């Protein structure tokens, strides 16, 4: 049997390290770090280019088991984030969403939607020190808010206009998003 030389050993070691980082939970912190590095502020749609949300028929349930009806959100500024505890881009953007929620949670409606079981979600929130309002969907998600990928985040104005529609990681605590929320909240 042929003995491995230094180059072959280093290549093998590199492949093992990359495999661990990419395909095991041990790599999650590295993936989160990389996603935070590439997170930029999302782009905002102009009022003229805004798609309108017409379907508000959506039922959700919060972590305490109380039902929430999306139709009750008509006329409000709403931030909706679809996420999962196992998703590195979701984990990467969560701190900026928490900061945004802490600043604007009393003036806009925030909904963090996950299809995971409540115990998993609660454990994740406690471990990371988040106090976000999380919901499980109980009925079909409105078509204009449906994404096959997470994270997916939408900012909806009082008239049902989808002003931000972003799939993938973003920096939500940016001047751009804050300015948009200020404008939408103050528009009457």
From TrEMBL:
Tell me where on the tree of life, at the top rank, the source sits.
Bacteria
List residues of the Thioredoxin domain. 24-186
Q: Which SUPFAM superfamilies match?
A: Thioredoxin-like
| Matches recorded under InterPro entries | AhpC/TSA, Thioredoxin-like_sf, Thioredoxin_domain, Thioredoxin_ResA/DsbE_sf
Task: Name a GO molecular-function annotation.
Answer: antioxidant activity
Record's CDD domains? TlpA_like_family
Q: What is this protein called?
A: TlpA family protein disulfide reductase
Lineage at the top is: Bacteria, Pseudomonadati, Bacteroidota, Flavobacteriia, Flavobacteriales
């Amino acid at each position: 049997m042929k003995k491995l030389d230094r180059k072959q050993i280093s290549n093998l070691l590199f492949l093992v390290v990359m495999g661990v980082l990419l395909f095991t939970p041990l790599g999650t912190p590295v993936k989160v770090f990389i996603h935070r590095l590439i997170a930029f502020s999302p782009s905002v749609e102009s009022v003229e280019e805004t798609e309108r949300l017409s379907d508000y028929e959506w039922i959700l349930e919060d972590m305490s088991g109380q039902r929430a009806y999306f139709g009750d959100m008509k006329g409000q500024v709403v931030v909706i984030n679809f996420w999962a505890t196992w998703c590195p881009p979701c984990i990467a953007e969560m701190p900026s969403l928490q900061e945004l929620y802490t600043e604007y949670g009393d003036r806009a409606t925030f909904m963090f939607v996950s299809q995971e079981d409540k115990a998993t979600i609660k454990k994740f929130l406690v471990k990371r020190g988040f106090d976000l309002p999380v919901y499980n969907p109980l009925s079909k998600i409105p078509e204009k808010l449906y994404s096959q990928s997470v994270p997916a985040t939408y900012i909806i104005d009082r008239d049902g206009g989808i002003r931000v529609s972003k799939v993938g990681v973003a920096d939500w605590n940016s001047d751009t998003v804050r300015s948009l929320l200020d404008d939408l909240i103050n528009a009457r």
